[in-house]
Amino acid sequence: MKEDMNTREPSCRIDAESLNRFKEQLPDIAENIIKSCYDKACYTHIDYEPIPSEGYVGDIINKLKEILFPGYFTREKIDPVNLKYYMGQSVSVLFDMLSVQITHSIRHDCFRYDLPCNECEEQGQKIALNLLESIPLLRKILATDVRAVYEGDPAAKSHDEIIFCYPGLFAVTVYRVAHKLFELKVPLLPRIMTEHAHSLTGIDIHPGADIGESFVIDHGTGVVIGETTVIGKNVRIYQGVTLGALSLPKDAGERLRGKKRHPTIEDDVIVYSGATILGGNTIIGARSVIGGNVWITESVPPDTKVIMETPKLVYK
Fold first, then answer.
1. pLDDT tens digits, one per residue of 159-189
2. Which residues pair with 276 in a beta bridge?
């Protein structure tokens, strides 16, 4: 016997009433969250002065790509006639974006750490101008990175494919800009930039690392390059490589901050996938080859090949 449709309680009305009962609890929940914002044991930035925004940083990186590789990442066609107009407009837009976020970074440190006034806005504009002035040099260095990828990767059909498609080049591009800001003593913003690239590529390069020209990260997922790493010219590393620090004690944050903790990789070195190289005193000599999945905590002389013994496979 079919149930009489008219005798059933409308389920939609019951759901709505239930939802209202849940939502009535939200003001109290919000009030408790607000109270927690004043708990000094937690981390909150509630101030009239903004901090750098990851969303704006993404916009800055996109605009930088348009200027560093003109014609590749714009919707509009760029030709010899409109190049001057386009570049003038783009540089002006990027200057405004950079100066605001750099100012926020400097001002954030001033207020949080009670530093003497640094004339934040003027500093932000000066540093933004300095970065823009360095773009021709950055373009030349990035060109060496593109050529190194092409010369070493038979799968690359063109330089265009590398610029458009290779996550390693994108991560290195963001790193090179962030490293310049790091050298200019901009707080916070360089790290936000490289972490943005990290989130998109799986490649983690600290902006403090010192990396020479013609640098290649092949494939790239899982690569980690620590803050005090030094990498020479014409170095190639593969996915899963870690250039890191040795195990650190609990008080390492204060005791070792600013000291050399990560390895040095000299010119013309290849580091294959899964290799782990640790320690500030560890130097991989020039022209060496580090095989896959090795673990290194001591220096390697130049012209050395380090490989694992062939593993024994067991079939059952």
1. 999 999 999 999 999 999 999 999 999 999 9
2. 242, 295
Same domain, 70 and 193: yes
DSSP classification of residue 268? T
- Owner of token pair 């990789």: 265
Residue-wise pLDDT for 212-261, tens only, equals 999 999 999 999 999 999 999 999 999 999 999 997 767 666 667 778 99
Query: Cα–Cα–Cα angle for 248, 251, 255, nearest 5°?
Result: 90
Judge contact between 188 and 51, C-beta under 8 A: yes
Is residue 46 located within the same domain as residue 156? yes
User: Quick one: CA dihedral 118, 121, 127, 130, positive or negative?
Assistant: negative
| Number of domains composing the chain | 2
- HSE-CB at 70 with a 13 A cutoff on CA atoms is 17
Query: Which range of residues forms the domain containing residue 261?
Result: 209-248+256-310
CATH no. for residue 83? Answer: 1.10.3130.10
Q: Is the pTM of this model over 0.70?
A: yes
